[in-house]
Specification:
This protein has 342 residues and is α/β, with parallel strands linked by helices. It has helices at 3-17, 19-28, 36-48, 62-71, 88-92, 126-138, 173-176, 190-200, 226-238, 243-257, 276-292, 300-311, 319-323, 328-338, and strands spanning 51-55, 73-74, 77-81, 93-98, 103-108, 115-119, 140-143, 146-149, 155-160, 179-184, 224-225, 270-272, 316-317.
Length: 342
C-alpha cells in the first residue's frame, strides 16, 4: 500500500470518526456565544491528552465553557475552587482511621475524575499547586505510602485571572510547563455580546425561583462516550506529519533557545527558551487541530495556528524585555515571521 493510499484510507476513517467533534461544538454553542478559539483549544487538549490553562479577566465564561464541555462527555467531572486555605488533602484525598478495623483507609479526593476544573488555580498556595504535579504528569496520586492510578481520560483545565493579584500565588515554571496550552481569553465582539445579552436576559429562561440560575440551563446533551474519546486519541496520533513540517517545529523551538543561529534579533529578550515538551506538544496539538478539521495530515498553517498557545508560557522574557514592554507573544510572533516555512 502506497503512502497516498494509506493517507486516503486514514482520511476517510478520520472524517467518519471525527464527526462527534461537530456535535460537541454544537452543544457547547447552546451555552457559549462565540469564543470558538477557546472551545477549539479545549478540544485540542481533550483529543491530545494535554492539560489547558485559561487566562482572562472575570466574566469571559472560562468556567462555564469547561463545565459545558464536560456536560457533553459521558465522564466524571469535578470542579475544585482553589482558595488560599485549600490543603493538598482537599485535592488528592487523605488516610482516614477506621476504628473498627484499626487501620488507615484512603479516602480519595476530587482529583479522581476524568475532567478536572481547577478554578482560579493561582489563588491556592504552592503546596496545593504542587499536589497537582504528580497527577498531571504521571496520571497517578500518592496517598500515604500507596499510589493510585487515575482513570483515563484525565484532563486538568485550569483558570486564572490576570488581574487582582493580591492574595494570589503565581504558578511555578515547572508546573506551567506541564500545561500543553495556555490560552489568553479575550472579550467577545459587540455582535456576540448582544447575543449574550439577549440570551441571558430572556424571560423564558429558567430563573432562581424555580431552583436554577437564570440563563444557565440550555439542555446540553451528552453526545460522546469515554470510549469514543480514547479511540479518537489513538487516531490523532496516527495523523501524518511530513519530515519538513517536523523540521519546521524543531526550527521554531530551537529559535527560542538560540535565536542568533537563525539571525533573529530577540536574544537579549529571552531568558529561557522553550523546553523539549514544546516540541512534543506542538506536534500533538497540531495533529489534534487537524483532527478537528477532519484532516489526516498536518500543515505548517496548523503549527502557526496553535503555536502561540503552546509557546507563550514556555518562553521566559528577560528583565530587559519587561522594561521595554515586550511580551513572550511579541517574541513568538517575531520568530514565526522569521523562521522559514516549508
Amino acid at each position: 500500500m502506497t503512502m497516498n493510499t494509506e493517507l486516503e484510507s486514514l482520511g476517510a476513517q478520520i472524517k467518519e470518526e471525527s464527526a462527534f467533534v461537530d456535535q460537541i461544538i454544537s452543544e457547547v454553542g447552546k451555552v457559549i456565544v462565540g469564543q470558538r478559539y477557546m472551545v477549539d483549544r479545549l478540544l485540542i487538549g481533550l483529543m491530545s491528552n494535554g492539560h489547558v490553562l485559561l487566562e482572562g479577566v472575570p466574566g469571559l465564561a472560562k468556567t462555564l465553557a469547561v463545565k459545558t464541555l464536560a456536560q457533553t462527555i459521558d465522564a466524571k467531572f469535578q470542579r475544585i475552587q482553589f482558595t488560599p486555605d485549600l490543603l493538598p488533602a482537599d485535592l488528592i484525598g487523605t488516610l482516614i482511621y477506621n476504628q473498627k478495623e484499626g487501620t488507615f483507609v484512603p479516602r480519595k479526593g476530587p482529583i479522581f475524575a476524568n475532567v478536572i476544573l481547577a478554578d482560579e488555580i493561582n489563588r491556592a498556595p504552592a503546596k496545593v499547586q504542587s499536589a497537582l504535579l504528580e497527577s498531571m504528569q504521571e496520571h497517578q496520586v500518592t496517598i500515604g505510602d500507596m499510589t493510585y492510578t487515575i482513570d483515563e481520560p484525565f484532563l486538568v483545565l485550569a483558570t486564572q485571572n490576570p488581574i487582582e493579584q493580591e492574595g494570589t500565588y503565581p504558578l511555578p515554571e515547572a508546573q506551567v510547563d506541564r500545561f500543553m496550552l495556555k490560552l489568553k481569553v479575550g472579550y467577545p465582539s459587540k455582535k456576540d455580546e448582544k447575543t449574550i445579552l439577549d440570551r441571558m436576559t430572556d424571560s423564558a429562561l429558567d430563573t432562581p425561583e424555580n431552583g436554577k440560575a437564570a440563563g444557565t440551563d440550555f439542555g446540553v446533551r451528552k453526545v460522546v462516550s469515554i470510549e469514543t474519546i480514547l479511540k479518537a486519541r489513538q487516531l490523532v496520533r496516527q495523523i501524518y506529519i511530513d519530515d519538513k513540517v517536523k523540521n519546521y517545529i524543531l526550527d521554531l523551538v530551537f529559535a527560542t533557545r538560540r535565536p542568533e543561529e537563525y539571525k533573529i534579533a530577540v536574544g537579549q529578550y529571552i531568558q529561557y527558551g522553550a523546553s523539549p515538551r514544546a516540541t512534543i506538544f506542538l506536534a500533538l496539538a497540531a495533529k489534534a487541530y487537524a483532527f478537528l478539521r477532519h484532516r489526516a495530515h498536518v500543515t505548517p498553517d496548523d503549527i502557526k495556528t496553535i503555536g502561540v498557545d503552546v509557546l507563550r508560557h514556555r518562553i521566559i522574557p528577560t528583565y530587559e524585555a519587561e522594561a521595554e514592554e515586550i511580551t513572550s507573544e511579541d517574541i513568538i510572533k517575531k520568530i514565526f515571521d522569521e523562521v522559514e516555512v516549508p
